[in-house]
Amino acid sequence: MDVTELLDRSAELKSALVDYATSPGFARRLAEALKSAETEGRPSMEEFADAVEQMLFEPSLDGREALLHRFLRTNKALSPDDRAVYEDWRDRNVLGAFRIVSNHRMWMVLHNLIDELDYQAHPTAGLEQLPHVKPGGYVVTRLVPVGGIWTVSGNLRFFGANDLPQVRRFAASLLRRMPQLAFRNPEKLENARDTVRKHHDIFVRLFGGNVLRGTGAEAVAAYRRFLDACGSELARPDTDPATIRTGAQLAPDSGIPPEILESADVALFHHPVKSISFLLHYGELEDAHRFPPRDTHDAGAVRGFVEDSTTPAYVLQELASRFPGTVNATYRVALSQPDFDWDRDGEALLRRHKPDSFREQDVPAISTVPALLVEEYRKSVEG
Asked: In this predicted model, what pLDDT tens digit does every residue of 194-213 receive, in sequence order?
């Protein structure tokens, strides 16, 4: 196909997705997306398009899967070719803030401020704006691949060169919310993996293992100690020690959710690929694997961790590997399934409740921040 045919095909496939997202079955979710965008009165076409994009490509605030994921999972009638394009959109879409490198009237070369890669982008709509767009300005949009080219999905928001501070704030907030956006750049991905490996070694050396249980206050104190160790051990040789930020500076109380600080049961969990996380009620979960619960009431923590799509699958996989003699009994009670067998049924259970864990299991959950965004990123972290 030539470029025009590819763009026509992209527009046709996107139209089918929009029809799906705006069907009556998702009316409530669309209303929630518009509300979360603080839309007042009747939404504009731009606001409506943004809400649909959010529904298609991002999970809802309460953890429901993105509608593109659901569309692929439930639509068995898709042709193999169409399914391949939609899967590419699911896995390779690029949401970002871009500097306009050059404008060729029907397409643009864009430099992504987050992954620091260049993209040749072909809009399928809004072409009347392109002749007036000057290199050196910026655009916020989402790109999707089709047949070897990149096209635009959703709105194009253009900014002038003088709007860089606003664009940087947006890019930094986006990167903080979705750190995986940087990892389309293979170099950034490998650097992040190397950093997490080093962090993991430090964590295990400090605490004697990859999990540390305690109260919320104890977990936060340990986290700051871990950050201090990472800062001192991994700093470049020519770094002035006075410039290394302490754990207390990097993780002030104001940046820790109150439910963690106030909890009596929190674990710090460090994964050798994904990095570190705070886990509420982990002690209860671990104890349920060590001593299988007597009834479903006592197995609430297990069900909660299974059904929470935001809890990584590897947490449960690690516990299953540590307690092979009791894991089946634990899940048989928790799920009310007397014949449950972890080796046979465990992965399917986790894939059903935590599909993102398997799609991104080799992607670190840390941010790699470009120099241009460091200051704004730090401000967003510190609130």
From this structure: 999 999 999 999 999 999 99
